[in-house]
Amino acid sequence: MRKRIASALLVAGLVLSAGLVQAAGFSIYEAGARATALGGAFTASADDGSAIFYNAAGLSFLKGNQISLSVMPVAPSAEFTSAAVDGQETVYEKTEDNIFPIPGAYYTHNGGGKLSFGVGLYAPYGLGTEWQNGEEFVGRQVSHDVTIETVYVTPALSYLVTPELALAVGLDIAHQTLNLKKYSLYPLDGDNALHTEIDGSSDINITPSFGLMYRPNDQWSFGAMYHFEKTMKYEDQDATVTNVAAAGSDAYGWAATVLAGLGGGERTITSEFNVPSILSLGAAYSFSEKFRLEGNYVYFGWSHFAKLDMSFDNPAMDDVIQFNYENAWQARFGATYTAIPGKLDIMAGFVYDTTPQPVEAISPLLPDADKKDYSIGVTYKTGKFDFTASYMAVIGEERSNIEDGRPANDDPAYPVGTYKALANIFGFGVGYRF
């Protein structure tokens, strides 16, 4: 019982995934306002500072010095409708209205020689899911409020091998934080007995990234980028377990006994949280001076997110949780129409995004599903400045965790029913060339 309770208390927080959920799994592919307007189809163009993420080889085709700043406020929402199991009443749940700002800040330099460089800050993985009425939420044993933030700082170099071909290398320096809140129930009547909050901060992780861009003529451009998988390590992070049952009740006595068996409510945990590799292949074609179309195929190595090993300061609580994510792909398309040459660009994009999440892993942490994304945006240029505004709607398919007429996950803490998620992403960007 003690091991089961401890595992249930802590697994949700370290397995996180993006309820900011823009891309399959818990990826956030929105690293710049202009790229977001194009549906993230930017690997073959990469013509602003966000090339640091989308394809650093694009630095070789920029000119002079550039500063690019973007913020993408994300407003996610999710709904859950329980299944009528064993005659139970159907329950409808909804997340709180929250906004999470996703940053993008870049500096690039191209002095006209063979070598160009730049540095960028962006957040490619994240989560924010807070369910309404957390104390009563049907999935509160898994999580009622969770956030995770993964920030990358990437310095990159690009080398112009020929006037048409550039190769780039970068270092993805990453740090991750997480916070999870959940309840454990008194087994005899289902009242809230224990509340757990996990606060974690990972070690710094450094892996390489690569880019390639080939522009054989004024019409065609081809690009490729690769970011390596990461293992974010958490050493001796805090987990606070509190008795929240009414004083004097049977639930209070049970919770006090559990806490005593754990050795007190102030615990520590050491674990690892894996994020996947990203491979993107892109091609862009300019039909005229005014119209350009790009398509990207993006492949995520989600099989790296297979399990979670948890080691506690109390070895009796150690556990391994299997997630078994599968590799997944996305098709991204973006179109640019230059309404006023040198002044105004109008952009639109579409994304088809497949989920890596097996049905048994669907939970209040991340009710993931295949998605279709639709985006629009404009860029206005004046003097040395350009300003971009964009919008993307991320529409998830309705998905149930019932398989062959039975719950796909046998754990009773996982509510059985149907999830549906939506995210609205607003992008604002400014660039300065000097």
Briefly characterize the structure.
The protein has four helices and 23 strands.
Shape descriptor reads elongated
Determine Rg (CA atoms, Å): 23 Å
Poorly predicted runs are 1-23
The average pLDDT score comes to 90
Number of strands: 23
Protein structure class: mainly beta
Instruction: Determine and state the CATH class.
Output: Mainly Beta
Order of strands, main sheet, comes to: 1-3-4-5-6-8-9-12-13-16-17-18-19-23
Corresponding CATH superfamily:
Outer membrane protein transport protein (OMPP1/FadL/TodX)
Q: Percentage of helical residues?
A: under 10%
Order of helices and strands: HHHEEEEEEEEEEHEEEEEEEEEEEEE
Let me know the largest β-sheet.
14 strands, antiparallel, barrel
CATH architecture group name: Beta Barrel
Number of domains: 1
CATH topology: Porin
Number of helices: 4
Percent of residues in beta strands: over 45%
Taking the alpha carbons of the first and last residues, their distance comes to 64 Å
